[in-house]
Amino acid sequence: MAMLGCGAPVPGSSALVEDPQTQELVQTSRLLLQKVLMAIPETHRSSVQSESLKLNSSENTKLVIMASTIGIPPAPVLKALSENFTMGTCLRRISEGLQLHRTLLAVIADHLKNKDRVLALQADIRDLNIQINKMLKMVGEETVVPPAVTLNLPADYEVQVAAHLTLQQLQTFGRDVDRHLKSLDKTVDEEPDDR
Fold it and tell me: InterPro entries under this entry (predicted)?
Protein backbone atom coordinates (compact mmCIF):
# COMPACT_ATOMS: atom_id res chain seq x y z
CA MET A 1 0.00 0.00 0.00
CA ALA A 2 1.12 3.58 -0.53
CA MET A 3 2.84 5.33 2.33
CA LEU A 4 3.52 9.02 2.83
CA GLY A 5 5.23 11.12 5.41
CA CYS A 6 5.17 14.88 5.28
CA GLY A 7 8.33 16.63 6.28
CA ALA A 8 9.86 20.05 6.09
CA PRO A 9 9.97 21.73 2.69
CA VAL A 10 12.88 20.75 0.51
CA PRO A 11 15.34 23.54 -0.27
CA GLY A 12 14.52 25.04 -3.67
CA SER A 13 10.90 23.90 -3.74
CA SER A 14 9.48 26.61 -1.48
CA ALA A 15 9.46 29.29 -4.21
CA LEU A 16 7.34 27.07 -6.41
CA VAL A 17 5.03 26.13 -3.53
CA GLU A 18 4.54 29.83 -2.70
CA ASP A 19 3.65 30.66 -6.33
CA PRO A 20 -0.05 31.71 -6.61
CA GLN A 21 -0.57 29.56 -9.71
CA THR A 22 0.82 26.52 -7.89
CA GLN A 23 -1.40 27.24 -4.90
CA GLU A 24 -4.44 27.41 -7.16
CA LEU A 25 -3.52 24.04 -8.69
CA VAL A 26 -2.95 22.52 -5.24
CA GLN A 27 -6.31 23.78 -3.97
CA THR A 28 -8.15 22.60 -7.10
CA SER A 29 -6.42 19.23 -6.79
CA ARG A 30 -7.47 18.91 -3.16
CA LEU A 31 -11.10 19.65 -4.07
CA LEU A 32 -11.05 17.08 -6.88
CA LEU A 33 -9.36 14.55 -4.62
CA GLN A 34 -12.09 15.02 -2.00
CA LYS A 35 -14.66 14.39 -4.73
CA VAL A 36 -12.84 11.15 -5.65
CA LEU A 37 -12.58 10.02 -2.03
CA MET A 38 -16.24 10.79 -1.33
CA ALA A 39 -17.31 8.84 -4.44
CA ILE A 40 -15.46 5.64 -3.51
CA PRO A 41 -17.97 4.24 -0.95
CA GLU A 42 -20.95 4.71 -3.28
CA THR A 43 -19.00 3.35 -6.25
CA HIS A 44 -18.14 0.32 -4.11
CA ARG A 45 -21.80 -0.20 -3.14
CA SER A 46 -22.92 -0.01 -6.77
CA SER A 47 -20.27 -2.32 -8.21
CA VAL A 48 -19.49 -4.85 -5.45
CA GLN A 49 -22.46 -6.99 -4.48
CA SER A 50 -20.62 -9.60 -2.40
CA GLU A 51 -21.49 -9.09 1.28
CA SER A 52 -18.07 -10.34 2.35
CA LEU A 53 -16.22 -7.53 0.53
CA LYS A 54 -16.39 -4.38 2.65
CA LEU A 55 -14.29 -1.22 2.45
CA ASN A 56 -12.02 -0.66 5.45
CA SER A 57 -12.47 -4.21 6.74
CA SER A 58 -9.74 -6.06 8.60
CA GLU A 59 -10.64 -9.02 6.36
CA ASN A 60 -9.11 -7.20 3.37
CA THR A 61 -5.62 -8.41 4.27
CA LYS A 62 -6.75 -11.94 3.44
CA LEU A 63 -7.21 -10.89 -0.20
CA VAL A 64 -3.53 -10.11 -0.89
CA ILE A 65 -3.01 -13.40 -2.72
CA MET A 66 -6.16 -12.80 -4.79
CA ALA A 67 -4.79 -9.37 -5.79
CA SER A 68 -1.65 -11.05 -7.07
CA THR A 69 -3.60 -13.80 -8.87
CA ILE A 70 -5.89 -11.25 -10.53
CA GLY A 71 -2.89 -9.09 -11.45
CA ILE A 72 -3.63 -5.87 -9.55
CA PRO A 73 -0.38 -3.89 -9.28
CA PRO A 74 0.33 -2.03 -6.03
CA ALA A 75 0.00 1.75 -5.90
CA PRO A 76 3.23 3.76 -6.11
CA VAL A 77 4.79 4.56 -2.75
CA LEU A 78 4.80 8.22 -1.70
CA LYS A 79 7.44 9.48 0.72
CA ALA A 80 8.24 12.69 2.53
CA LEU A 81 9.87 15.30 0.33
CA SER A 82 13.65 15.26 0.59
CA GLU A 83 16.68 15.81 -1.60
CA ASN A 84 16.25 12.23 -2.86
CA PHE A 85 12.44 12.38 -3.19
CA THR A 86 11.73 15.72 -4.81
CA MET A 87 8.41 17.38 -5.45
CA GLY A 88 8.73 16.33 -9.10
CA THR A 89 9.27 12.70 -8.10
CA CYS A 90 6.31 12.81 -5.74
CA LEU A 91 4.02 14.42 -8.33
CA ARG A 92 5.12 11.84 -10.90
CA ARG A 93 4.25 9.02 -8.49
CA ILE A 94 0.88 10.63 -7.75
CA SER A 95 0.19 10.79 -11.48
CA GLU A 96 1.32 7.17 -11.92
CA GLY A 97 -1.02 6.08 -9.13
CA LEU A 98 -3.98 8.01 -10.48
CA GLN A 99 -3.46 6.63 -13.97
CA LEU A 100 -3.00 3.10 -12.62
CA HIS A 101 -6.31 3.23 -10.77
CA ARG A 102 -8.10 4.84 -13.70
CA THR A 103 -6.82 2.07 -15.98
CA LEU A 104 -7.78 -0.65 -13.48
CA LEU A 105 -11.28 0.81 -13.21
CA ALA A 106 -11.59 0.91 -17.01
CA VAL A 107 -10.71 -2.79 -17.29
CA ILE A 108 -13.08 -3.70 -14.45
CA ALA A 109 -15.92 -1.53 -15.84
CA ASP A 110 -15.93 -3.65 -18.99
CA HIS A 111 -17.09 -6.58 -16.83
CA LEU A 112 -19.71 -4.74 -14.74
CA LYS A 113 -23.42 -4.46 -15.44
CA ASN A 114 -23.79 -1.28 -13.39
CA LYS A 115 -20.82 0.85 -14.43
CA ASP A 116 -22.16 4.43 -14.24
CA ARG A 117 -20.49 5.27 -10.92
CA VAL A 118 -17.23 3.64 -12.00
CA LEU A 119 -17.22 5.74 -15.18
CA ALA A 120 -17.95 8.91 -13.18
CA LEU A 121 -15.11 8.07 -10.77
CA GLN A 122 -12.77 7.53 -13.73
CA ALA A 123 -13.69 11.00 -15.04
CA ASP A 124 -12.96 12.57 -11.64
CA ILE A 125 -9.59 10.80 -11.49
CA ARG A 126 -8.82 12.07 -15.01
CA ASP A 127 -9.67 15.65 -13.97
CA LEU A 128 -7.46 15.36 -10.89
CA ASN A 129 -4.60 13.96 -12.94
CA ILE A 130 -4.86 16.92 -15.33
CA GLN A 131 -4.14 19.23 -12.37
CA ILE A 132 -1.25 17.05 -11.19
CA ASN A 133 0.19 17.08 -14.73
CA LYS A 134 0.06 20.89 -14.76
CA MET A 135 2.13 20.91 -11.56
CA LEU A 136 4.50 18.33 -13.08
CA LYS A 137 5.12 20.67 -16.01
CA MET A 138 5.76 23.56 -13.61
CA VAL A 139 8.56 21.58 -11.93
CA GLY A 140 10.01 20.60 -15.31
CA GLU A 141 8.97 16.93 -15.23
CA GLU A 142 7.51 14.91 -18.07
CA THR A 143 3.94 13.68 -17.79
CA VAL A 144 3.46 9.98 -17.15
CA VAL A 145 2.31 7.48 -19.77
CA PRO A 146 -0.67 5.40 -18.60
CA PRO A 147 0.28 1.83 -17.72
CA ALA A 148 -0.98 -1.18 -19.63
CA VAL A 149 -2.88 -3.46 -17.27
CA THR A 150 -4.19 -6.95 -17.90
CA LEU A 151 -6.37 -8.51 -15.23
CA ASN A 152 -7.24 -12.18 -14.84
CA LEU A 153 -11.03 -11.98 -14.44
CA PRO A 154 -12.44 -15.40 -15.42
CA ALA A 155 -15.68 -15.11 -13.42
CA ASP A 156 -17.92 -12.63 -11.63
CA TYR A 157 -16.32 -13.26 -8.23
CA GLU A 158 -12.90 -12.18 -9.52
CA VAL A 159 -14.50 -9.07 -11.03
CA GLN A 160 -16.08 -8.28 -7.64
CA VAL A 161 -12.77 -8.82 -5.83
CA ALA A 162 -10.88 -6.73 -8.41
CA ALA A 163 -13.37 -3.86 -8.05
CA HIS A 164 -13.21 -4.11 -4.27
CA LEU A 165 -9.40 -4.22 -4.07
CA THR A 166 -8.96 -1.44 -6.62
CA LEU A 167 -11.36 0.88 -4.76
CA GLN A 168 -9.78 0.00 -1.40
CA GLN A 169 -6.30 0.69 -2.77
CA LEU A 170 -7.47 3.92 -4.43
CA GLN A 171 -8.95 5.07 -1.11
CA THR A 172 -5.67 4.43 0.74
CA PHE A 173 -3.59 6.01 -2.03
CA GLY A 174 -5.97 9.00 -2.17
CA ARG A 175 -5.58 9.63 1.56
CA ASP A 176 -1.80 9.60 1.14
CA VAL A 177 -2.08 12.02 -1.78
CA ASP A 178 -4.32 14.26 0.35
CA ARG A 179 -1.69 14.44 3.10
CA HIS A 180 0.92 15.41 0.52
CA LEU A 181 -1.28 18.06 -1.11
CA LYS A 182 -2.24 19.42 2.31
CA SER A 183 1.47 19.89 3.08
CA LEU A 184 1.77 21.99 -0.10
CA ASP A 185 -1.39 24.03 0.52
CA LYS A 186 -0.35 27.30 2.13
CA THR A 187 -3.97 28.26 2.88
CA VAL A 188 -4.24 25.41 5.39
CA ASP A 189 -3.23 26.06 8.96
CA GLU A 190 -1.66 23.14 10.74
CA GLU A 191 -4.86 21.27 11.48
CA PRO A 192 -4.95 17.77 12.93
CA ASP A 193 -5.40 14.94 10.45
CA ASP A 194 -8.86 13.56 11.18
CA ARG A 195 -8.36 10.25 9.41
Answer: 4_helix_cytokine-like_core, GCSF/MGF
Longest Cα–Cα distance of the chain, Å, equals 52
Task: Kindly report the number of other CB atoms within 10 A of residue 48's CB atom.
Answer: 22
pLDDT digits (tens, 9 = 90+) for 76-94: 999 988 889 999 999 999 9
Distance CA 30, CA 178 (A): 7
Q: How far apart are the first and last CA of the chain?
A: 16
Q: For the chain, what are the domain ranges? A: 14-184
Question: CA angle 97-101-104, nearest 5°?
Answer: 140
For residue 164, count CB atoms less than 10 angstroms from its CB and return exposed for 0-12, middle for 13-18, buried for 19 or more: buried
